[in-house]
Design a protein that fits this description.
There is one protein chain. The protein is α+β, with helices and mostly antiparallel strands. The chain is built from 14 helices and 11 strands.
C-alpha cells in the first residue's frame, strides 16, 4: 500500500485525533486546559510501528517511543490551540478537497482511501479530524512565515548565482539534543554529555546513524531516522554550511551548538546539478520616487522632481535626499537603494538605467507611479532567471530560515505552557514518587 502524504505525517509525527474515552483509559498528560489520553498515545505508537515494520530493529524500545510520541502530541495540541485562538479555521470543503487529492494521488476512490485509513481502528470522523488538524497546522506555519520570514532580492540573486555554477545538493540527516530556553549551566552540561555519548557510540560502530536518531534525537524528524532530505547549500544553516562543502559522503559533523541545542549532521549522499548557462547584466541603482496619481498633468510633482534633480546634479547626497523626500517606502530607508536587478526587472526605468554609465544620474522619468530619478551605481553579470525560478530560490531560502525560526517559536511555546505528564498510576511526574514506609522493627 502506498503511503499517503497526509497520513504519513499523521502517523509518523503522531498527528492523531483523540480516541474515544473508555473506562480503562487514563490521562497521559495535561496540556494547558486540554488532556491527552493514553489511548491516543497507544494508537499513534501502533501507527508508527506499523509504518516502520521494515526497520523495526531500528525503533527504540516501546516505552521510549511512547514518550517521543507523547511529546509530539503535546506540541500538536499547543499548536492547534494557538491556531484556534488566532481565529484560524478549516472548513469541511477544504477537508473534502484534501481527502480527494490524496485519493487521486494514490489511484484510489475516496471510499477506498477512507477504508484503508480506518482499517486499524481509526474512525472516519477521526481520520477527517486528522486531515483538518494537519491543514490547520500548515496554515499556522504559513502565517508565521509570512509575518516573520524575510528574503531579500540580493539573497535570491546570490542563490541563483550559486545554482548557475552547477550547484551541489546534499542529502543530510541529523540528530538533535535540544536545550530549553535560557538553559542553565547544568542543563547545557547534561546536553553536551548526551550528544557526546551518542557520537561516541556512532564512532565505535555500536549504533548506526538512523537507529541513533530514532532512539535519541529530539528533532521533529527523529522517527524518520533524522532524514532531512536533499538540500542546496543555501538551505543549510550557516553553522554547518562552510564545513559541509569539505565533507565526504558518510562523514558526521559535530557536535555543533546551534540555536536549539546540540546537533550532529551526517552527509548521506552528494549530487551535482547541471549548471545554468544563461546570464544577464544586472544593475545596482538608487531611486527617488515622487508619487502622483496623474504624473503627466501633475505640475507640482514634476517640479519637485526637477528641483531634487538639480540638487543632486549640484552634488547633494542621493541617500540623504531619498530618505527625506522619496515616496518609495520599500527603498527610502536604504537611501533609495534597490537590490541587483536586470533591465527587465527595473520595469519602466530599465532602459534609462541601461543607457547610463556607472555613477550616472538620470533626469526625472515619468512612470505610472509618478516621477522617478535614478542613479546607476554598478553592474554585474547575474543569472537570467524567470519569475518562477526566482520564486523557487526565494522559497528555498525561506524554508531554511523558517526551519530555524519556527523551531525557536515552538520551544518558546512549550516553555510557556502548563504541561503535566502523568505516570501510569495517575500521579504527576513533577511530583516525587511516593516510597513505602519502612517496616516496623520487631
Amino acid at each position: 500500500m502506498k503511503k499517503f502524504a497526509f497520513l504519513l505525517i499523521a502517523a509518523q509525527l503522531a498527528f492523531v485525533s483523540p480516541a474515544p474515552a473508555q473506562s480503562i483509559d487514563s490521562i497521559a498528560a495535561v496540556v494547558n486546559e486540554d488532556v491527552i489520553l493514553r489511548s491516543e498515545v497507544k494508537l499513534a505508537t501502533d501507527n508508527i510501528i506499523a509504518q516502520n515494520s521494515a526497520r523495526a530493529a531500528e525503533l527504540p524500545p516501546r516505552d521510549i517511543l511512547e514518550r517521543q510520541v507523547l511529546e509530539r502530541l503535546i506540541m500538536m495540541r499547543l499548536q492547534l490551540a494557538r491556531a484556534n485562538s488566532s481565529g484560524m479555521r478549516v472548513e469541511d470543503a477544504e477537508v473534502d478537497q484534501a481527502v480527494a487529492s490524496i485519493a487521486q494521488q494514490n489511484n484510489l476512490t475516496t471510499a477506498q482511501l477512507v477504508a484503508q485509513a480506518t482499517q486499524n481502528g481509526m474512525s472516519e470522523q477521526a481520520f477527517r479530524k486528522t486531515i483538518a488538524d494537519e491543514l490547520l497546522l500548515q496554515r499556522m506555519k504559513m502565517a508565521y512565515a509570512q509575518s516573520t520570514i524575510r528574503v531579500s532580492e540580493s539573497e535570491v540573486d546570490n542563490a541563483l548565482s550559486s545554482m548557475s555554477k552547477g550547484g551541489t545538493q546534499y542529502h543530510l540527516a541529523n540528530i538533535v539534543v535540544t536545550l530549553p530556553e535560557g538553559a542553565t549551566a547544568e542543563q547545557i552540561e547534561l546536553g553536551q554529555k548526551k550528544i557526546d555519548g551518542i557520537k561516541a557510540q556512532l564512532d565505535k560502530g555500536e549504533l548506526d546513524f538512523t537507529a541513533a536518531a530514532m532512539r535519541f534525537s529530539n528533532g521533529p524528524n527523529a522517527l524518520d531516522g533524522g532524514d532531512l532530505g536533499w538540500r542546496a547549500i543555501e538551505e543549510v544553516p550557516p553553522a554547518f554550511a562552510q564545513q559541509l562543502v569539505s565533507m565526504k559522503q558518510g562523514d558526521i559533523l559535530g557536535p555543533v551548538r546551534g540555536t536549539t541545542g546540540f546537533q550532529l549532521l551526517k552527509l548521506v549522499e552528494v549530487r551535482q546539478n547541471a549548471a545554468a548557462s544563461n546570464t544577464v547584466t544586472q544593475y545596482r541603482v538608487q531611486q527617488i520616487l515622487i508619487k502622483s496619481a496623474d504624473p503627466a498633468n501633475d505640475n507640482a510633482a514634476r517640479a519637485k522632481a526637477e528641483t531634487l534633480h538639480a540638487r543632486l546634479a549640484g552634488g547633494a547626497d542621493f541617500a540623504k535626499l531619498a530618505k527625506s523626500d522619496s515616496d518609495d517606502a520599500a527603498s527610502k530607508d536604504r537611501g533609495g537603494e534597490l537590490d541587483w536587478r536586470s533591465q527587465d526587472g527595473l520595469g519602466e526605468v530599465g532602459a534609462t538605467v541601461a543607457g547610463l554609465a556607472d555613477n550616472g544620474l538620470s533626469a526625472p522619468i515619468q512612470t505610472a507611479q509618478g516621477w522617478v530619478i535614478v542613479k546607476r551605481l554598478g553592474t554585474r553579470q547575474g543569472v537570467a532567471a524567470s519569475d518562477d525560478q526566482r520564486a523557487q530560490a526565494r522559497d528555498m531560502i525561506g524554508r531554511r530560515k523558517l526551519e530555524e525560526a519556527y523551531d525557536r517559536f515552538l520551544r518558546e511555546m512549550r516553555g510557556e505552557a502548563y504541561v503535566d505528564i502523568r505516570r501510569a498510576d495517575g500521579s504527576s511526574e513533577s511530583a516525587p514518587v511516593a516510597t513505602p514506609a519502612p517496616a516496623p522493627a520487631n
